[in-house]
Design goal:
By secondary structure, the chain is mostly helical. The chain is about 40% helix and about 10% strand. The protein has a 3-stranded antiparallel sheet with strand order 1-2-3.
């Protein structure tokens, strides 16, 4: 059987090689893009906590203490109380996590004289991750503390 030299087209092998190359390049591109997205969300989280800290400082100036919380853990009751109380001191919407839409963690210390804000960053190689914790499994791995936080040494 003689092949018709006028027929033009790609062979099955050529098509498979081309599709494989496109698949590999797409995978690399998506991996890089998702890394950039997570870093952008982490940047937003840091800006959100700074915005909340600024609003807390204004709250402190008006009330001589920070919003008090009942526990030294990030529970939903204390965080909801915080979000309700801080709303008048923030222009716009009170920020929430850009990926999950959940509230950031807040609790006060020293009878409302200091505070801590927490977020969970996605990029575990970030230089601002709290040292000494497992970045992957910790509920919160980044924090901002008030300037007048009194840190007591561990017993």
């Amino acid at each position: 059987m003689v092949r018709n030299p006028m027929k033009k087209g790609f062979t099955l092998i050529e098509l498979l090689v081309t599709i494989s190359i496109i698949a590999v390049l797409s995978t690399i591109g998506l991996t890089i893009f998702s890394g950039v997205q997570s870093k952008a969300r982490d940047s937003t989280r840091k800006q959100d906590l700074n915005k909340l800290a600024t609003a807390l400082e204004i709250y402190f100036q008006n009330n001589s203490q920070f919003i008090t919380s009942q526990n030294q853990t990030c529970n939903s009751t204390d965080t909801n109380t915080f979000y309700t109380a801080i709303t008048p001191y923030i222009s716009g919407v009170v920020p929430k996590d850009p990926k999950t839409g959940t509230q950031y963690c807040y609790f006060s210390e020293n009878n409302g004289q200091s505070f801590r804000l927490f977020a969970k960053l996605e990029n575990c190689s970030d230089k601002d991750i709290i040292s000494g914790i497992n970045c992957q499994t910790a509920a919160w791995n980044y924090s901002i503390v008030s300037e007048n936080l009194i840190i007591t040494p561990a017993p």
